[in-house]
Design goal:
The structure holds 3 protein chains of 3 kinds.
Chain A: H1 2-22, H2 27-61, H3 75-82, H4 84-117, H5 123-131, H6 138-149, H7 154-163, H8 167-170, H9 176-200, H10 204-212, H11 217-246, H12 249-254, H13 261-270, H14 275-296
Helix pairs in contact in A: 2-14, 3-14, 4-9, 4-11, 6-9, 9-11, 10-11, 13-14
Chain B: E1 4-13, E2 16-26, E3 31-35, H1 42-50, E4 57-62, E5 65-66, E6 77-81, H2 92-102, H3 107-120, H4 136-149, E7 154-158, H5 166-183, E8 187-191, H6 194-200, E9 203-208, E10 211-216, H7 218-223, H8 228-233, E11 238-245, E12 248-250, E13 255-256, E14 264-270, E15 275-290, E16 294-300, E17 306-312, E18 322-327, E19 333-334
Parallel strand pairs in B: 3-8, 3-9, 6-7, 7-8
Antiparallel strand pairs in B: 1-2, 1-4, 4-5, 9-10, 11-12, 11-14, 12-13, 14-19, 15-16, 15-18, 16-17
Chain C: H1 10-23, H2 25-35, H3 49-79, H4 97-102, H5 114-145, H6 151-159, H7 165-175, H8 183-207, H9 211-220, H10 225-236, H11 238-253, H12 257-262, H13 270-280, H14 283-306
The chains are: A mainly alpha, B alpha+beta, C mainly alpha.
């Protein structure tokens, strides 16, 4: 009886809050209605283009039928849990993305430092050039790597010219090294742009104070600048790592004998249409991404997010 | 223009009370200043009158009309912010005419009205400029013209001069006070700067912690503060403990004769200007601050209480100097 | 190589001069004799190694990174006008053969030119962009202007891409088997995938404004809330909105991962045309195909820079 009463109460409460949102009388209620109006379109998009498909994908991983969701089966999950191949793919994806993130953020710090702290000639052009690859889809990035490291690649041909060895032997675009450069190629611009934002907020007075107290530029960087940009570096690393995990087109073209999660999903579908396994990998990926973001955001302020 | 009445307004945010049972009337045509330390509820009060906050309890009336639940856009109030909040995408004239446009006033009429106001505020030559190209003082004039253009029931000014430099501030406040008086505008002037409030307002309300401490003319609030907070907040003051016996005030170190109509232990307010150098009371200089036209002295009385007084700027004082002072009994104010 | 001492840099030139004063021997003598005593702490006479190397190394890394990023782009563009590319550098300039081919004017052009795909993608990207204005601008406004329950979570959802394109692709196809790969499916998918760019760009525009007071001024002057938004707030943010449009549009025009997963049938979107070229076509022809997109990006960046973005990024100057 008491339970029913409290349910009735909460329904009444919910109805009354809906009522105040629809027919507000105070300014705060009017504000709530405005917030609702402004966010509803986004929620509709997120639900129908995001959450519903993700739920369907979860169902897909548990489907008995291959071509549509029907019947229940945990076979795909069993395969995923027992087949070591998948564990290795997961591990490969993570370390590869982490290593690429590390290198990209390190270079990003240096590039951002140069852009923000030195007055370089043609700064606008340089910034534009550094940001250019953000616009490139993964397949084009792959082509850029071929241009550098492929058989006709600039670096390959240069090394071949000086060493006298065959360019075919020297081409590294489609090896793991080429793939790594591909990752770094797409990640450096993102890291740099995020870190430029961080650098812009550094207190230059403190840096000048340190210099006037006799600190060398490097000491100033180590003791004053670096502690200030550290949160930005962490934020940048988290965001760049997320981007690294999502890379697909570059791997699809370069292959490099190296399989990451996104490529495996494609392979599962292309070879034998193992839709349940593809979906199961997708679910694990999304779950990991959400957990990672959830944990990572504890170290990140919203205003540090940029792309 | 209208009389604005706040009837026991209380505003709570969760468990925090920003304004606590405030009763206040802004009379038709007067400039009422609200002063108080930050967080005292003065901005909440202003926003309640504007309609951006609905009070938790109490009512807002414009003349006889209760407007507590009327949304801001239907209240017809003028707002001037510290940040000016001018519309950078529109010219100065368009800014001023904006309110009239919202009221569907025909183009030529609102243009004429805007030009008239710009003329009145001495910025007619800036009409076609964009606000971002103006100086702070000019922007504030535009903000004022924009708020006045709609002939508001009440003009609300929220720290309008805080961003300006001292000279400009001094000039602008006289101009604005004159203009508002000429137009007979009912205005509420929120500021943390009590000098500004004294200079501009017909009456001053002192707020502390969401409560009204005192409201009255600048001279009443200054000369007859009702409590130690008001005495302390408005101007510099020395609040001393003493005892009144038979109309005489005993401050421990000195006894003042006069007609003090309290009895027993009291707090009294002695303004620095009621203290004069030369007199029966011996004191030692603790701190001397040279201010050009005068020197502000903090001196210790024989019982180690300190008081602030002002001395001529051309005599040099330093710490430890002995001075003698006198207190003018007529200007000592006993707190109720 | 430049050294900090002589270079006209922002941080080094001013403080560098001060160091010079302290370090120069004549100056030392002057101050010492004037004061008649030894300075308590002596600033080191010679510059530490890190000072000598720091700036050249930093600039060196910048130049290296810049060349790795830019050289292949320029090479690709230049190659697209070359006749042959057998050695290290393409030779035989200038020919428009490859451009004619990818643009559909060549002999084989009818079969695989970029125009139908580009037209299709431009249409889809434009629709996705418009949808993003309708969805992203309001949510960016709500997030910048108001405090509300779970605001941080809504913010996270709005500014961090929810899922990568590949995974959204398979989920989409299964959820909407009929429509997932259609033009509508692409529009909606692009809109979701690219919405963070719109939200972030518009938000950074809003953050530079005194949003609350602008809105309150407009409303106190008699503008209803929707009217205040349309006549005051959004016009103030128009550069941010425009920047968001350009970024989301450009990214959607060549979106590959999601498109590759969901799209079947004709016309093929531009990114699939690029994919076919990159994986199958001769080198110089791929170069021409990709260069079409480069031109789009260059125009996008030029416009972005004139309206206050620093480059192809949501970060505004």
């Amino acid at each position: 009886m008491s339970v029913r009463l409290s349910i009735g109460d909460s329904i009444r409460q919910a109805l009354s809050s809906v009522h105040t949102v629809v027919f507000p009388t105070t300014e705060r209620e009017r504000e709530r209605r405005r917030i609702a109006i402004m966010t509803i379109p986004f929620f509709v998009l997120a639900i129908f283009a995001g959450f519903v498909p993700l739920a369907t994908m979860l169902r897909m991983s548990l489907s008995e039928e291959q071509l549509f969701n029907e019947g229940w089966s945990v076979d795909a999950w069993e395969t995923l849990a027992t087949d070591r191949t998948y564990w290795w793919i997961g591990f490969n994806t993570l370390w590869f993305a982490a290593a690429a993130t590390l290198v990209s953020v390190a270079i990003g710090v240096v590039v951002a430092h140069a852009l923000e702290k030195y007055s370089l000639p043609f700064e606008r052009v340089i910034v534009a050039a550094v940001s250019f690859p953000i616009a490139l889809p993964g397949i084009v990035v792959a082509f850029m790597i071929v241009v550098l490291l492929g058989r006709q690649g600039l670096l390959t041909q240069t090394v071949a010219f000086f060493s006298g060895r065959s360019a075919i032997d020297l081409a590294t675009a489609t090896t793991i090294g080429g793939l790594f450069l591909g990752y770094v190629y797409s990640l450096i611009p993102r890291a740099t742009m995020i870190l430029r934002g961080t650098y812009a907020e550094v207190n230059t007075d403190a840096e000048e104070a340190a210099r006037s107290l006799g600190a060398s530029p490097f000491e100033t960087f180590r003791h004053v600048t670096f502690p200030e940009i550290r949160p930005g570096i962490v934020a940048g690393a988290i965001l760049v790592f997320r981007s690294a995990l999502a890379i697909f087109g570059t791997v699809l073209i370069l292959q490099g004998g190296f399989v990451v999660v996104t490529l495996r999903i494609d392979r599962e579908l292309a070879v034998g249409f193992n839709s349940q396994i593809a979906a199961a990998i997708g679910v694990v990926y999304v779950a990991f991404l959400i957990a990672f973001t959830f944990i990572g955001l504890r170290f990140v302020r919203a205003e540090q997010v940029a792309i | 223009m209208s009389t604005v009445t706040l009837e026991s307004i209380t505003k709570r945010y969760g468990s925090e009370t920003a304004v606590d049972g405030l009763d206040l009337t802004i009379r038709d045509g007067e400039i009422l200043g609200i002063v108080g330390p930050s967080g005292c509820g003065k901005t909440t009060t202003l926003r309640t009158i504007a309609g951006f906050e609905t009070p938790t309890k109490g009512d807002v009336r414009f003349d006889d009309q209760v407007v507590t639940h009327v949304p801001p856009e239907q209240r017809n109030v003028g707002l001037v912010f510290q940040s000016y909040a001018l519309f950078d995408t529109m010219s100065v004239r368009e800014n001023v005419a904006f309110g009239l446009k919202m009221r569907d006033v025909p183009v030529d009429q609102r243009r004429a009205r805007a030009d008239e106001l710009l003329e009145m505020l001495d910025i007619a030559d800036l009409a076609d400029r964009l606000p971002a190209t103006l100086s702070g003082g000019q922007q504030q004039r535009v903000g004022l013209a924009r708020a006045l253009a709609i002939e508001p029931h009440v003009l609300l000014l929220d720290e309008p001069m805080t961003g300006l430099d001292a000279t400009l501030k001094a000039r602008l406040r006289i101009e604005i006070a004159d203009l508002l008086a000429d137009l007979g505008v009912t205005a509420l002037y929120v500021t943390h700067d009590q000098t500004e409030a004294m200079a501009m307002c017909d009456r001053i309300a002192v707020l502390n912690d969401g409560r009204l401490e005192q409201v009255g003319t600048p001279s009443a609030v200054y000369e007859r503060p009702e409590n130690a907070f008001v005495a302390d907040f408005i101007g510099t003051s020395n609040v001393l403990e003493g005892t009144v016996r038979d109309g005489r005030l005993d401050l421990g170190v000195v006894e003042l004769s006069g007609s003090f109509d309290a009895s027993g232990p009291v707090q009294v307010v002695v303004r620095p200007e009621s203290l004069d150098l030369g007199g029966p009371l011996e004191a030692t200089v603790e701190q001397a601050t040279y201010l050009g036209d005068r020197t502000e002295l903090i001196v210790a009385l024989p019982d180690e209480r300190t008081v602030t007084l002002r001395a001529d700027g051309n005599v040099e004082y330093s710490r430890g100097d002995s001075v003698s002072i006198s207190i003018d009994p007529a200007s000592v104010c006993v707190l109720p | 190589m430049t050294t900090p001492r002589t270079s006209p840099s922002r941080d080094d030139s001013t403080t560098g001069d001060e160091t010079q004063e302290v370090e120069s021997p004549t100056d030392d003598v002057d101050t010492e004799t004037a004061l008649g005593r030894e300075p308590a702490f002596q600033v080191a006479d010679r510059q530490p190694l890190s000072t000598l190397l720091g700036r050249p190394v930093v600039v060196g890394v910048l130049l290296l990174a810049l060349s790795v990023l830019v050289v292949p782009i320029v090479t690709t563009f230049v190659s697209s006008f070359a006749r042959t590319a057998t050695g290290a550098l393409p030779t035989g300039f200038v020919t428009l053969e490859h451009w004619r081919y990818v643009l559909g004017f060549g002999e084989y052009g009818v079969r695989a030119n970029a125009i139908p795909g580009l037209t299709f993608s431009v249409g889809i990207a434009t629709a996705g962009m418009l949808l993003n204005v309708l969805i992203g601008v309001p949510v960016a406004y709500a997030l910048s202007r108001y405090e509300f329950y779970a605001r941080d979570w809504v913010n996270t959802l709005a500014i961090l891409p929810l899922v990568p394109g590949v995974i959204l692709g398979i989920a989409f196809l299964r959820t909407y088997p009929e429509r997932g790969g259609s033009a509508l499916g692409l529009v909606v998918g692009y809109c979701l995938l690219k919405s963070p760019y719109m939200v972030l760009t518009v938000q950074s525009s809003f953050q530079s404004m005194d949003l609350r007071h602008l809105e309150e001024s407009a409303r106190s002057l008699g503008a209803s809330w929707p009217r205040a938004l349309l006549t005051v707030i959004f016009p103030h943010a128009k550069q941010g909105i425009l920047a968001g449009c350009i970024i989301t549009w450009t990214l959607a025009a060549a979106e590959f991962n999601f498109t590759y997963m969901v799209h079947t049938g004709d016309p093929k979107p531009f990114s699939l045309f690029l994919f076919r070229n990159i994986s199958n076509a001769p080198y110089l022809q791929s170069a021409a195909a990709i260069s079409i997109y480069f031109l789009i990006v260059v125009v996008a960046i030029l416009v972005l820079q004139t309206i206050g973005n620093s480059g192809f990024t949501t970060v505004r100057e």
